[in-house]
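ARCHIVE CARD
CATEGORY: sequence design from structure
SOURCE FIELD: tokenized fold
FIELD CONTENT:
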């Protein structure tokens, strides 16, 4: 029964519950019931409100309904024979993608009056070297928006602006969002992806900067994919380069479900890009590694 219900598309479950889809690059954002669930590929999903993700339809129903594995399987099997068939989901047309300029103006409008707070968050809370943050700010690739968040600009392999990652500078908030094209453009540190010899792929812009500080190699480009999913467009750029998969350490993820997602992404990426190598941080992520190194250096100096 479980094998059968795993074949039910995530879109079918979400549509039947009233969620509305909006295409975002290679993923789809489903909104409804005060929730925003991002679906990537055929199986990966992430609930932004809850901060939880999973793989497949059974995981999704367990999450949405608070059910056990057995309950979710029976619910899906009964729904397929009953509710889904009696009330088939109407295919929801995907909303048109909003122009990049409109998205940037709404979510990533630059406000230099808020930069001191963002700078303090990056350097004091996240332990990023002040000179590195200054350089990125001076060239306009990192700045504060009018909501007090930190904006990390994405560029494609030709250097064209493609979108941005926005991270809250509130030390008690985990809020982050990505606008624009997150499959064909990325935040990067070091050489541009097209010009480097080695590409390291990290999960977030802060991790990318941290990795570059910890591994200051001359011919290195460190890319953030704004999440765990590593798009095929980026793997195509990596084809003739030394490639390092440097996402979070699955052994230290906050939950077993998150660890399973990370392991799945690693396995899938290594299968698609067999010449790649895994480079795992000692702590949960590269920023944790950097902060631990900074604290040790501070204690040594004292």
């Amino acid at each position: 029964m479980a094998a059968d219900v795993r074949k039910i598309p995530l879109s079918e479950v979400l549509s039947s519950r009233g969620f509305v889809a909006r295409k975002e690059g290679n993923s789809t954002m489903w909104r409804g019931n005060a929730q925003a669930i991002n679906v990537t590929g055929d199986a990966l999903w992430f609930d932004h409100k809850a901060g939880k993700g999973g793989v497949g339809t059974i995981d999704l129903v367990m999450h949405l309904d608070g059910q056990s594995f057995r309950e979710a399987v029976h619910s899906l099997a009964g729904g397929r024979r009953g509710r889904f068939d009696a009330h088939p989901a109407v295919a929801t047309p995907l909303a048109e993608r909003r122009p990049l300029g409109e998205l940037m103006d709404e979510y990533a409008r630059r406000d230099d009056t808020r930069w001191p707070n963002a700078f303090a968050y990056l350097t004091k809370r996240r332990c990023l070297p002040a000179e590195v943050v200054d350089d990125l700010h001076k060239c306009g690739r990192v700045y504060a928006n009018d909501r007090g968040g930190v904006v990390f600009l994405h560029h494609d392999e030709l250097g064209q602006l493609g979108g941005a990652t926005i991270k809250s500078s509130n030390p008690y908030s985990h809020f982050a969002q990505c606008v624009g094209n997150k499959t064909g453009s990325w935040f990067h540190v070091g050489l541009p992806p097209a010009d480097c010899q080695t590409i390291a792929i990290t999960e977030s812009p802060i991790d990318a900067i941290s990795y570059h500080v910890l591994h200051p190699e001359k011919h290195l480009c460190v890319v953030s994919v704004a999440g765990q999913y590593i798009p095929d467009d980026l793997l195509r750029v990596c084809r003739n380069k030394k490639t390092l998969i440097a996402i979070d350490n699955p052994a230290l993820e906050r939950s077993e479900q998150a660890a399973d997602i990370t392991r799945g992404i690693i396995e899938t990426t290594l299968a698609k890009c067999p010449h790649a190598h895994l480079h795992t941080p000692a702590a949960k992520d590269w920023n944790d590694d950097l902060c631990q190194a900074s604290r040790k250096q501070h204690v040594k100096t004292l």
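CARD ANNOTATION: The two ends are 62 Å apart (CA to CA). The longest strand covers residues 161-167.
SHELF: design records, drawer C
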